[in-house]
Amino acid sequence: MTLRHIVSWKFVGETPEERSERAAEATAVLEPLRERIPTVRALSVHRNELFDGTNYDLTLVADFDDADGLAVYASHPEHLPVVELMQRITVARAASDFTV
């Protein structure tokens, strides 16, 4: 069993260039979590390619063994500053967790 955690964000910014800068900043802090938090089994970050302004700008896909692994990730000291950053540079967040 694998628990998949998917989060998408819309970034602050009036232009595609501003949102792209936020996406690059977010990617730079999200990707290292793959190696820094032991309960992460897989983690990838994807930038939106179509329908700028309508779609969300960035999506994280992360896999864990179970809900406990996700809970460790959520409260991990390496993750908490990322959460704070994302709250400052985003205007919307959507998430879904499911078993694959």
Radius of gyration: 13 Å
Task: Show unreliable segments.
Answer: none
Distance between the termini: 7 Å
Let me know the largest β-sheet: 4 strands, antiparallel
Q: Structural class of the secondary elements?
A: alpha+beta
Shape estimate = globular
Could you tell me the strand content as a percent range? 25-35%
Please give the order of strands in the largest beta sheet: 2-3-1-4
Overall average pLDDT: 97
Number of strands: 4
Query: Element order, helices and strands?
Result: EHHEEHHE
Helix proportion:
25-40%
> What is the tally of helical segments?
4
Describe the structure.
Helix content is 38%, strand content 32%. The chain has helices at 16-30, 33-36, 67-75, 80-89; strands at residues 3-11, 42-47, 58-64, 90-99. The protein starts with a strand and ends with a strand. The mean pLDDT is 97.
